[in-house]
Amino acid sequence: MTTEQRTAGTRRARRGEPRRNPNRVLTLPETLTVKELAQLLDQSDVDVIKQLMRHGIMVSVNQVVDHQVAAVAAAAYGTRTRLAEPAEDTAAITASVGRERDELLRPRPPVVTILGHVDHGKTSLLDYIRNTSVVDKEAGGITQHIGAYQVERDGQPITFLDTPGHAAFTAIRSRGARVTDIAVLVVAADDGIMPQTDEAISHAQAAEVPIVVAINKMDLPGAQPEVVKRQLSERNLLVEDWGGEVIAVPLSAQTGDGVDDLLENLSVLAEIMELKANPDREAAGVIVEATLDRRRGPTATVLVQAGTLHVGDHIVAGAASGRVRAIHDENGAPLDAIRPGSPGVITGLNTTPEAGDILQVMRDDRAARQVANRHGQRAATGNLDTVLTLDSVVKQIDAGDIKELVLVLKADVQGSVEAVVHSLEKLSEGGDVKARVIHAGSGSVSDSDIQLAAASGGIVIAFNVGFEIGAERTAERLGVQVRNYQIIYRLLEDIEQALQGMLEPEFHEVVVGRAEVREIFDGRRGVRIAGCRILDGRIVRQGSVRVMRADQMMTETGIGSLRHFRDEVNQATAGTECGIVLEGFNDYAEGDVIVAYRMERVN
Ligand code: GDP
After folding, report:
1. pLDDT tens digits, residue range 465-487?
2. Is the CB of 166 under 6 A from ligand 1?
3. Which residues of 352-389 are buried (b: 16+ CB within 10 A; e: fewer)?
4. Which of 249, 301, 414, 421 has the fewest CB atoms within 10 Å, counting from its CB?
């Protein structure tokens, strides 16, 4: 919007004329803040918020709304809207990845992440798999750690993501990308389930990713696979020979026994999952890792999720943009393209993106730069995580809908963990809003706890524990609330209140004043002014009004201008006269009553 347009809008607003433009079609991105929307509509923030309130949608200035909500506000100003072409907005394209027509879809390799407790053998297992079955092994090539690689079993490729631990796994997810198809949970047979194993299970379950268990270190004399299976069953993970559906493969990452069995199970599971993507479209993917290479500039490992990424493509990834200069595999061998479900290292971006950023092919350089700038600005305002969609609004309004308060709980000892979880369950009984603990454990609040809460839209409860180093900063950065308690009843009291606060807000209307139309004057440019006398209460310039003719409602709108003689005033009180111009309504008749009201929250 040019300054000229904005000034014209302000001038019109000052004159109190209705600011409508029926011929305008506004192009909207998938999501935008209320402030951005107000600017696009050439209206004040407050006014746009008011219009949305009239439709029962409660928003704040910095709230991100989706294009459907934005369209509701635009309609109030008589402005029609259309959604930006997919190429104009990455969010729209990313959303479309899962909505391809069936006949365009081709099978793609599964993407597998290995999770588990420290020292249970994650690295050893990945190394063993890589050394025995890497695709395209370069003789003499130096293998680099690139965060992702592909192996082949019976000609079927499987992609492994080599991210350091489940915090990274969830960090990628919290940025909106669903990357992993299958999680392999490594449990050492001589050690059993440990705290980080529990965390890994929570993270995989929160991401709704199927778990395959690798019972590792079977070569050790102290290996007790049955103990591991029992521990799994206690966590609702029933393995196949216990009558459940969870695949558990005993193996040794040291001797290699059983590893092939694991790969076969992964292949079969992938086949059952019917993982597919359209390779013949512009590529969309996720940044798995990125670094600044002194010689080559920003380099990034990309996992392509749909389409095929080619050398020469214009791309955007988070706030970075550029053109793919070269693609390499983990052995440094050049590739022409990356197909869906496969990784590669790219160069050519202007800055280093972040792990989890979504990569998207753009029409040209300009489009790529524009989108990258917008992402940069959005990230700077920190509004990425609180997207309010029409769906969520409808759910809020739809009374009786069950909602959840998602919690990650950390406590000093296992005994307190269990006590708190139990009490929270009881607290939720019978209520409309439930507390759902997605992960509970003993020990300090870690980075991984924060990431999990961020990705799941939850808060962290710290009961008699502090933070691990760095976790507090992560919480601040991701906007995750961490609440500390020393006494259990305080904790429960707070959660109970939070649950009540989350109950549907109820609004009721309060009439603030009524004015009777006594005379009608013609203003400039066909605007008609209602000369009124305030019958009772007051009429407020910022308020909402409806025009009643006998029992019939003529319109519901806002006030464009409120005058006492020649002066524009903020309010007019009982017994006084005033001139009123309403927004978008000109059709007054003598004797009409203008009723001013406001909505008040009941609970
Ligand atoms: P990570 O922390 O989960 O990545 O675990 P590592 O792969 O680094 O393994 C931790 C230790 O366990 C190392 O000393 C490995 O050599 C050892 N280890 C891993 N897998 C096996 C196994 O199958 N058998 C035996 N005996 N040792 C193993």
Report:
1. 888 888 888 888 777 788 888 88
2. no
3. bbbbbbbbbbbeeeebbbebbebbeebeeeebbeeebb
4. 414
